[in-house]
Amino acid sequence: xxxxxxxxxxxxxxxxxxxxxxxxxxxxxxxxxxxxxxxxxxxxxxxxxxxxxxxxxxxxxxxxxxxxxxxxxxxxxxxxxxxxxxxxxxxxxxxxxxxxxxxxxxxxxxxxxxxxxxxxxxxxxxxxxxxxxxxxxxxxxxxxxxxxxxxxxxxxxxxxxxxxxxxxxxxxxxxxxxxxxxxxxxxxxxxxxxxxxxxxxxxxxxxxxxxxxxxxxxxxxxxxxxxxxxxxxxxxxxxxxxxxxxxxxxxxxxxxxxxxxxxxxxxxxxxxxxxxxxxxxxxxxxxxxxxxxxxxxxxxxxxxxxxxxxxxxxxxxxxxxxxxxxxxxxxxxxxxxxxxxxxxxxxxxxxxxxxxxxxxxxxxxxxxxxxxxxxxxxxxxxxxxxxxxxxxxxxxxxxxxxxxxxxxxxxxxxxxxxxxxxxxxxxxx
Length: 429
Hints:
The strands form two sheets. A nine-stranded parallel β-sheet has the order 7-6-5-2-1-11-10-9-8. The chain is built from 13 helices and eleven strands. Helix 2 (36-46) runs parallel beside helix 4 and helix 12 (374-389) runs parallel beside helix 13. It has one domain (14-248, 336-423): TIM Barrel (Alpha-Beta Barrel). The protein has 429 residues and is of the alpha/beta class. 49% of the residues are buried.
């Protein structure tokens, strides 16, 4: 692994826990980030050396908004409460800048590094109680969004340096999953694979802008999936290759068969009843309320997906996935292995480290347990073991191995995967 611009003393291996935006939207009583010190202590206990977060940089430094009393909460009523990452328990008010500093102080106290990113052009503003954050983001010309994010991230590092906390930052990502959010606006190619090469110039300008402020600090972007057909489009100035190898497989079959990522008009309501609990409302009637309609624009998750996740019978969805695992298993395992090999080879040829920032099955309803169960857990073991063999620098155990998800309770699996990733062998008692 070439350590171009990586911080002095960066560990040889980074086991990462995905804390996304949850660390500031889920701080109420009984929520997983009510006590930051406790959350970091639990992470260390499980073997993690890093967390990856949305640091809300645009909001803090480029929105022009007063964040001293940032009001956050659920999407509206029970809407989204069955969706992973969206099941915020209660409304809260935080001093966003003070909370950010306390987060980094806690990370420093516990010896945990932080990968700084932004989800702001995907979903972070949907948890605000008013649309000002969302509106400020979308007031920025799409051609300039990466550069404005770069300025905001640079401002964050300036603040952390002034507080003696910048040593906690491992590297900066301009934004999460650049090809499937609002960073693609104005490109004329939509979202997904076609957006990867179309984004290169914008992203390269953003990284170069960041390096004008902090030439010694590593900066990159990250991609949904592994863009195997367009890795040459990764910005030349990127210091780390960060990809999200979600295989989907049988989960993709569920998404396709039930139109979870299509329009409400195309949703197969009768067909979907086999997944739903009795008493589910019609999909057209399931909304966060008219006053929160803007939140549906502030997040990229489709309405049918939220509806099914909210109203599914988790056991029915798990059963559907398990029944089809046999026909998809080989393809899923081969896809993940091929993605890792291609990404590792490209990163090595480019002289930069590889990080698996998310993965590995996909985006399942909150109360399902396919990925936490025997099949998903074994897939986690396989991926982190292969990541070790390929010399991957950083990896998650699973996107769901974080305080806001059920897999957090499986301490043994996380410790085992920590050992597999760092040493190639399971931990011994």
